[in-house]
Amino acid sequence: MVCLKDNHLFPSELAAPFSIGPVPIRNRVILAPMSGVTDLPFRQLALRYGAGLVVTEMVASRELVQDTAESWARLRSAGLKPHMVQLAGREPHWMAEAAKIAADNGADIIDINMGCPAKKVIGGYSGSALMRDPDHALSLIEATVKAVDIPVTLKMRLGWDENSINAPHIARRAEEAGIKLVTIHGRTRMQFYEGRADWDAIRAVRDVVSIPLVANGDVDTPEDAREILRRSGADAVMVGRGCQGRPWHAGVLAGHRHPDRSEIADIALEHYQMMLAFYGEAVGIRHARKHLGWYLDRYAPIVTGAEKAGIVTSKDSREVAALFHAALQTGSDLGQSVQEAA
After folding, report:
1. Final residue of a structural domain among 253, 286, 321
2. Residue 117 — very low, low, confident or very high, per pLDDT cuts 50/70/90?
3. Residues 147 and 268 placed together within one structural domain of the fold
């Protein structure tokens, strides 16, 4: 396990523990929930390599209550602690019932999604669309909080657009309703992921709540993490896209050392094998493709486009594993690497 400290490089506040209600969190760097990314294998690796907290992919509340296989797959924890489950929905009844199911199946914390900007989510009046109707959003929050005895948290954006920056208003009311932590992504929904996150704007939420505040958006380096805390007044940071292709990255921001090239190759290969085991080989190969691409883009940039395509599109898992691992070990000539690996 890569877990040696090199604390002189990192702000000590990120390594400090905190708590969400009664639940202790070992440090202040949280892996963001990302649909199609932070499945169980990814979360297992992130927690192993030092993330303070990991969050499930968004679980649709109604689908969980209706017992769909995908919802249950997203809910699984495999013993990870703390187990934080993010729920999405637009109706108080389904949110409450889903929260009860999650709590009964090992969830330590429930997170309410009011930040997802995806069209298929807001088209169902969930995610960041809820910010357009704060009264309705509060009805979901109140129902979820009342349904369970575990802490409930809230993740949202600054507002729907630049003319409706209402995160401070919603956050204050959410705290009054019993929310134990709020996370703010420093963009509006209409910005999607364009431009830069506005870290200064998050401070307006800090000014009106006393519960822990987590700042999210464009955190990539230790310097970013330190600066977003300073400018937002937040207690912790959440990292999303910066962890794609490096599930250890949240731990690095919290003060754990970065793996070397050999370790990166081994972790990435293990990640691939974990996905095959979790999904089954045929489905796992498909789900793994984007992850393979991220690893190769970051750590084997000299691999040609044709070679990369051969790795990510092959349906032979053993061939993929050999080519992928060899490319990451050297970061350069793929053909020579495979010969040496053989």
Report:
1. 253
2. low
3. no
Contacts of 120 (CB under 8 A, 6+ apart): none
Annotate 96-145 with DSSP letters as a single string.
Answer: HHHHHHHHHTT-SEEEEEE----HHHHTTT-GGGGGG-HHHHHHHHHHHH
Asked whether residue 58 is domain-assigned, the answer is yes
Q: Are residues 334 and 226 in the same domain?
A: no
Gap between the Cα atoms of 79 and 167, Å rounded? 34
pLDDT band of 2, cuts 50, 70, 90: very low
Distance of CA 96 to the CA centre of its chain: 23
Active-site amino acid positions? 116
Q: How many residues does the chain have?
A: 342
Does the annotation place 155 within a ligand binding site?
Answer: yes
Q: Is 53 helix (H, G, I), strand (E, B) or coil?
A: strand
| Residue 5 is assigned to a structural domain of this protein | no
Residue 280 confidence class, pLDDT cut points 50, 70, 90: very high
CA atoms within 13 A on the CB side of 65: 15
Task: List, for residues 72-86, the tens digit of each pLDDT value.
Answer: 999 999 899 999 999
Range of the domain at 102: 10-253
My answer on whether 202 and 85 are in the same domain is yes
Tell whether 86 is in a known binding site.
yes
280 in a known ligand binding site: no
Residue 272 pLDDT greater than 80, yes or no:
yes
Span 67-72, mean pLDDT?
93
Residue 1 within any structural domain of the chain: no
* Distance (Å, whole) CA 94 – CA 61: 6
191 annotated binding-site participant: no
Task: Report the b/e string of 268-305 with b at 16+ CB within 10 A.
Answer: bbebbebbbebbeeeebbebbeebbbbbbebbbeebee
Q: What is the pTM of this model?
A: 0.90
- Of 1, 2, 13, 44, nearest to 256 by C-alpha is 2
Check the annotation: does 43 bind a ligand. no
Q: What is the pLDDT of residues 164-182, one digit of tens each?
A: 899 999 999 999 999 999 9
Q: Say which amino acid occupies 208.
A: V
